[in-house]
Specification:
Blueprint lengths: L6 H17 L1 H8 L24 H21 L9 H4 L3 E4 L4 E4 L6 H11 L11 H6 L4 E2 L5 H10 L1 E6 L2 H13 L6 H13 L5 H6 L5 H9 L14 H4 L9 E4 L3 H11 L23 H8 L4 H10 L1 H6 L8
Parallel strand pairs: 2-4, 4-5
Antiparallel strand pairs: 1-2, 1-3
Helix pairs in contact: 9-11, 11-15
């Protein structure tokens, strides 16, 4: 859910943001880390020459508000966000489609599988987004990433291509990732993450759980997420968008949201001059019989946590909440 701010709200937002930035030393280090490259932060007007239909008027107005909100946030609180040397890391989540000059930053659990299907169609690698399998999308290595180019190629594309990022309410995205990776059989996440989580956070675990890593509880997963000495590292499926896509360093031209995914995506396809018959697919990529993760589902998971744990999750994702104008959850 997006919110609008009065002056009083803005003052409160400023105060809260400054307090949180002061509170979280990791964020200060994150901002200081990028200090040398003079990144362009001005909003570049979207090229709307391909948009002929008046029906996109409201979506366009929403898009302009989102871009302005993110820009204002970055001007106020990202003053220290000047990139230094890790250019290839910063662009490692960005997919490239050269024909239509698109850069798409992948945020897992925010429609990324279907976005990659769309990029494959635009690239001429498939005729329809509906007949591309999950494995072909994620393991086929059909799409180019921005870090595969040399420095000149990266900068040229950053400065001339239309850059898009699609985000999701952080709490919904977190619960969606947990359900996907830990509540279904998984040959990677169970042995790699599950075993380590159970070993550290479940003192009375059965040997079988130690051996296969299945059955991780949400509360155990949250203990892992919030632990400064995690037994296994972070993962892109629950990493912050601020560390996946660097939205105060890379001036995204389009900010889409999972909550309005289809209309945002189809408007974006209009903007970049995609074939008229190409529409964003609305199917669930995996576990199609499961209920989609929504606010009601999230509440069921959060009720097993203490208020302190819920607050710490919010603190963990607070930059994503603020950057993308998401409502703070009722904790």
């Amino acid at each position: 859910m997006e919110i609008s701010h009065s002056q009083g709200d803005n003052d409160a937002l400023n105060k809260t943001t400054n307090e949180l930035i002061g509170k979280h030393q990791g964020t200060k280090a994150f901002f200081r880390k990028f200090s040398n490259i003079n990144w362009p932060l001005e909003i570049r007007p979207l090229n709307k020459s391909f948009v002929k239909d008046n029906k996109w008027k409201n979506i366009d107005a929403t898009q302009e508000k989102r871009r302005s909100f993110l820009q204002d946030f970055c001007r106020k609180y990202g003053g220290m966000t000047r990139a230094q040397s890790h250019l290839f890391h910063m662009v490692s989540r960005i997919y490239v489609e050269d024909k239509h000059k698109i850069l798409y930053c992948e945020v897992p659990k925010a429609g990324c599988s279907n976005w990659k299907r769309i990029l494959m169609v635009l690239n001429g690698l498939a005729s329809s987004a509906y007949n591309i399998s999950h494995d072909a999308v994620h393991y086929g290595k059909h799409l180019k990433k921005l870090d595969s180019f040399d420095v000149k190629g990266i900068y040229t594309r950053l400065n001339t291509y239309t850059k898009a990022v699609f985000v999701r309410d952080p709490m919904e995205r977190l619960v969606s990732a947990f359900r996907d990776k830990f509540e279904h059989p998984n040959s990677y996440y169970h042995p790699v993450f599950g075993k380590a989580i159970i070993k550290k956070y479940r003192p009375d675990a059965w040997e079988e759980a130690f051996n296969n890593g299945s059955g991780v509880k949400f509360k155990e997963f949250i203990h892992y997420l919030l632990d400064s000495h995690r037994p296994v590292g972070m993962d892109i499926h629950w990493e912050k968008v601020s560390k996946l896509c660097y939205p105060c360093l890379i001036n995204y031209d389009f900010v889409g949201k999972f909550e309005t995914l289809e209309e945002d995506a189809n408007y974006f396809l209009q903007l970049i001059g995609a074939p008229k018959e190409l529409k964003f697919p609305n199917f669930k990529d995996r576990h199609s019989s499961d209920e989609r993760t929504n606010i009601q589902v999230v509440r069921q998971y959060l009720k097993d946590l203490t208020r302190t744990e819920r607050q710490l999750i919010y603190d963990f994702y607070y930059l994503d909440y603020l950057m993308f104008n998401y409502t703070m959850p009722i904790l």
